[in-house]
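Thread: quick sanity check before group meeting

JM: Hey all, I'm pulling together slides for Thursday and realized we never actually wrote out the predicted structure for the chain we discussed last week. Dropping the sequence here so it's in one place. If anyone has concerns about the input, flag it before I start.
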Amino acid sequence: MITPGNKLLIILNDVEEVKMLDSELKNIRVEEANLWSYVALQSIQIMKLKGSGNGYEEEKKQLIEALVRASKSIFASSQDNIMKMLNEIEEGLLKVGYKVKVVEAKLESRGAFGLSADFGVAAFELGLSFDPILNVPFIPGSSLKGAVRAAYTELLQSKKELDRDAAEREAERLFGGSSEQAGAGLIGFTDAYPIVTGKGGYLLYPDVLTPHYKDADIELDAQPSPHVFLTIAPGTRFRFYVFWVENRGGCTLRVKGEDTDLMEGYLIADKPSMGSSRVHLGWVDLAVLYALGLGVGGKTRLGYSTLRIVRYEPLRGEANAQS
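JM (edit): ok, ran it. Output follows.
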C-alpha cells in the first residue's frame, strides 16, 4: 500500500505507474484500506479527470460517499488502538508529574479541523486533520490550545476588565509564546481523538460549500460550482487531556480548592464541578468551556466545529496523589 509523503510525488511523476494504479484502484476495498493512502491514490484520478474537464465532480461525489460509508467499520477496527494510545498518554503525563484533566466533548455541528491539512485537499480542495496510523481524523492540540488561549484573553478583557496588552501578557505567561521570556508556558493540550462515532454511527460526514460567484457581471449569468468536502460527523465524541505544572520559570499557576467561590482570582479548579448548585471553576476552566462552545478550527463563524463538554475532571495518578 502506498504511504503518504514523498512516495506520492514519485508516483505523480511516473506515468506508467499511475496507469497501473488506475486499474488496481478498482480492486481496493475502501473499508480495508488506509484512508490516507486511498484518498491520495484516488486524488490522482480526480486530478486527471479535472484536467480533461470530464466527470471529476461525479468522481469526487463517489469518493465522498465511499469514505463516509467506510468510516463506520474503519472506526470500529481502530477503536481499541485509539483507547490504548489515549490511556498511554494519560499514564505518561501522570508519571512525569503533570497535573491532568480529562476532557470529553461532543460535536454539536459538523467538524472542520485542519482545512489546510494534506488529507483530502487535492481531491476536495479542503483538507482535514487525519492520523494515517490510527486511520481516523483528530483535533490538533495546537488548535485546542489556540482556541482556549483566545477565549482566556477575551474573558480577561470582558470580565476582569484588563486592557488587551495586559490580557495578552497574562495569556503568554500561562500558554507560552515565541519570546525567550515567555518560554513553554504552564499549560498544554494533547490532540483530541474520537472515542464514539457521531450521527448515524458515522465518523466522517459529507458537506457542500458554494463559493462566491465569479466570472459573471450579473447574477443571472453566474454559475456557482458547489464543492463537496469531508467533515467529521456531528455527535462524534472526542477525548483529550489538559495538563499543567504549577511552577515553571518563575511563573505560578494558582490552583483553586473545592471550597473556593467562583472566580476568586484562581486559574484552574482542583476539583471542577459543573453539575451542582455551587460551581467550582477557574479562569482556564471557563476558557475551555467557552472555547469549545464557540468552536475550534475552521469556519467556526459559519457554525462548524462547536463542541459541548460532557466530561471534565481531574485524574489522580501516583505522582498527583502525593501532591
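AS: nice. The chain is about 40% helix and 15% strand. The CA atoms of residues 208 and 228 lie 4 Å apart.
JM: adding both to the slides.
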